[in-house]
């Protein structure tokens, strides 16, 4: 089924964008095989595909349903309870037991042979296996994968569902995005020698050789985020230490804001507020707005229709760009290009919070679920993100944030505090 490759199998799942985004930096390790989808590969048994599809559809439904008053919050809270993360303090010595969700995964493997076919195919060439979602890792271990198993954690903290049924007996090696993840896994009972702190894997094309590209883009970005040179003057020594002496001239272009709608499409209403609120500035070309619709065709068409109602022309080279694509592959290519032109990223605190390492200030949209609540806290702790204010008045508070240097400060904090070497560290560790 799979071609022989040189270094590793790289596995993701089609559930949102996060697991694919974390897998993309390792595509060059696959020797042309490409990233494999555990839930959508050639020859997948119909029952396995059905199980994966049920999980995806249910997650997207619950995420969208959350916006409905009262009942939506109740249903989502019930769902989120099964994958929630407990507060880290006070420190205790007891181990958290397997969650209901985790027990169900193992029950389906035991009763329905879920994942056996996939692992059998991979075992024909048992190279190191890198996956960015916990279920393929558990499948590989349960069905006797002959090669080493590596699980990349694409968040700032991790729920008990990510640790196997019997953590102390597992041979899965965890590649932790933060030190908090490493501490949490140890608390769940994962052996310390199976936990490696690596950082989150950022795409090489955004960093460049020796991180020079990210530094060059940040130098330009700071001019847009600090047009009066107030923040750069105040923190000149810090800026010089990390970026060298910056040119004194003011920004030549208007700042670019990217608003990223999540993979489940749950923040459509917020996108409407953003477009309506910023319409006057977009028309005056004092701001460029990129709205990321991803591969949601209906959503993209809806946003294009809204743009027409607001009498704003859209396009990649226009002041308003609705970024959409027909496939994930096309989407990630377009996103990679657009993020290099972006000065401010407005998003819910998903795996994109790690893009703050590039010097991208994050405006934090309301988190969806326990995982994103912890991601938000992490962003605020490192100083790389700020909470959004009332989106109805974005045309007032966003310019103030720029004028006061709030976003310039967040950009520099992320660049200084958040590791950038995750992909390099993981590749080196896996391939030796």
From TrEMBL:
Q: Name one Pfam family in it.
A: DUF6938
Which ranges carry the DUF6938 domain? 251-394
Question: Could you tell me what this protein is called?
Answer: DUF6938 domain-containing protein
Q: Which organism is it from?
A: Candidatus Wildermuthbacteria bacterium RIFCSPHIGHO2_02_FULL_45_25
């Amino acid at each position: 089924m799979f071609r022989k490759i040189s270094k590793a199998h790289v596995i993701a799942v089609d559930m949102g964008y996060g697991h694919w985004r974390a897998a993309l930096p390792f595509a060059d390790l696959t020797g042309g095989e490409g990233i494999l989808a555990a839930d959508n590969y050639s020859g997948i048994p119909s029952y396995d595909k059905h199980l994966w599809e049920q999980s995806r559809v249910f997650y997207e439904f619950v995420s969208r349903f959350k916006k409905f008053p009262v009942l939506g919050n109740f249903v989502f809270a019930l769902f989120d309870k099964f994958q929630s993360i407990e507060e880290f303090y006070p420190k205790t010595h007891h181990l958290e037991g397997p969650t209901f969700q985790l027990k169900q995964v193992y029950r389906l493997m035991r009763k329905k042979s879920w994942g056996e076919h996939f692992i059998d195919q991979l075992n024909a060439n048992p190279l190191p296996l890198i996956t960015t979602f916990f279920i393929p890792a558990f499948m590989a271990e349960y069905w006797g994968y002959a090669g080493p198993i590596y699980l990349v954690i694409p968040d700032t903290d991790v729920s008990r569902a990510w640790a196997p049924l019997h953590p102390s007996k597992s041979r899965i090696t965890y590649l932790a995005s933060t030190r908090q993840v490493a501490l949490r896994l140890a608390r769940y009972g994962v052996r310390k020698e199976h936990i490696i702190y690596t950082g989150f894997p950022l795409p090489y094309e955004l960093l460049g050789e020796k991180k020079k590209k990210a530094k060059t883009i940040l130098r330009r970005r700071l001019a847009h985020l600090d047009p009066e040179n107030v923040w750069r003057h105040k923190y000149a020594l810090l800026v010089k230490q990390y970026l060298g002496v910056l040119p004194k001239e003011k920004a030549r272009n208007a700042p670019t804001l990217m608003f990223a709608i999540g993979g489940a499409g749950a923040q459509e209403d917020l996108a409407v507020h953003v477009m309506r609120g910023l319409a006057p500035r977009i028309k005056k070309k004092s701001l460029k707005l990129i709205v990321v619709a991803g591969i949601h065709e209906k959503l993209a068409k809806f946003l294009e229709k809204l743009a027409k109602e607001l009498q704003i022309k859209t396009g990649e080279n226009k002041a308003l760009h609705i970024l959409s694509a027909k496939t994930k592959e096309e989407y990630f290519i377009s996103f990679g290009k657009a993020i290099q032109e972006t000065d401010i990223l407005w998003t819910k605190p998903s795996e994109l919070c790690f893009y703050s390492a590039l010097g991208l200030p994050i405006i934090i949209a309301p988190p969806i679920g326990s995982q994103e609540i912890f991601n938000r806290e992490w962003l605020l702790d490192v100083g790389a993100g700020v909470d959004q204010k009332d989106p109805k008045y974005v045309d007032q508070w966003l310019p103030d944030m720029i004028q006061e240097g709030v976003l310039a400060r967040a950009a520099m904090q992320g660049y200084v505090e958040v590791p950038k070497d995750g992909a390099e560290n993981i590749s080196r560790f896996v391939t030796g």
